[in-house]
Amino acid sequence: MINPKPFIALGAVLTVAGALAGCATFGKCDSAACRDDKAITTNVQAQLNQYASLGAPNSIGVQTIDHVVYLNGQVDGGLAKRSAASEAEDVPGVTQVVNNIDVVHK
């Protein structure tokens, strides 16, 4: 029997990614909140890229909406998943982290 968990996880990631991308198409965001979100995304991505244990640079996707950071991607273990969330939480301006990172067991 085929394990449905990977398909469910993929569907959830695609749904969130599509919804977030759809929000960006409504127009240019010039508010201070949008500029803050962009800076937070940049800072979280830079922080995560410092750790080789989290994979290649930019292997974890980062999106920020209203100071809430969404992490997406795959890592090799639960410790890496927790570390990514912890590093993101430490970035100034982050109010919450939604950790959608999948753990791949090799």
Task: Give a description of the structure.
The protein starts with a helix and ends with a strand. Helix content is about 45%, strand content about 20%. About 20% of the residues are buried. It is of the alpha+beta class and about 110 residues long. It has helices spanning about 5-25, 30-50, 80-90, and strands at about 60-65, 70-75, 95-105. It is globular, with a radius of gyration of 14 Å. The protein has a three-stranded mixed sheet, sandwiched between helices. It has a domain at about 30-105: Histidine-containing Protein, Chain: A.
N-to-C span: 21 Å
Task: Determine the mean pLDDT.
Answer: 83
Which shape, going by the Cα principal axes?
Answer: globular
Order of helices and strands: HHEEHE
Spatial strand sequence of the major β-sheet: 1-2-3
Rg computed from alpha carbons, rounded to a whole number of angstroms: 14 Å
Query: Which structural class should the secondary elements be placed in?
Result: alpha+beta
Q: Would you report the number of β strands?
A: 3
Main sheet characteristics = 3 strands, mixed
Low-confidence stretches: 22-27
- Highest CATH level, the class of the domain at 30-103: Alpha Beta
Helix residue percentage: 40-55%
How much of the sequence lies in strands comes to: 15-25%
In CATH, the topology of the domain at 30-103 is named: Histidine-containing Protein, Chain: A
Count of DSSP-assigned helices: 3
Second CATH tier, the architecture of the domain at 30-103: 2-Layer Sandwich
